[in-house]
Predict the structure.
Amino acid sequence: MPGAARQTFGDSVVGREAGNIIRALRDEHETAIVLVTTPEPLPISETLETVAALREVGINPAAIVFNRTRTPNFSNRDVAKLKEQLIANGKSSDAEYLARIARSELDRAKEADKALAQLRDATSAQIIELPMLCRLSGGELARALAQRLTDVRVASFSREADAIGRD
């Protein structure tokens, strides 16, 4: 939008101000674009489109927050064992139902991993993974997310300091 205004209004006050806005948006020391997405197909697609559109105007996102990630604490092998145990205990109807739910969760995690790989391929921006925090809400959720973001930032500073120390 500022580019169109700059072209339309040229060296007028509006045109010059649009030029200032363009410079500010492209100056990584003055402006940082942080995108937020979730591990579902539509938000990932929209994020990839946004990254491409920003790149076209010379802007790179500073970071992408990959929100509500889920990492199952079980594998396909665990699901098979659970199913076997339930069947052995005469609960075959429960076995198939629970196995289907567990496999669905594993599939969701696999799709999230693919989405994360797509984001990493599309941009050099830092990707910050925030887990789904199911049992938290309100202030407690805000504090937990703030702590995770602080931990990410501290780790990032440590890596930067290590890199500077090696130079």
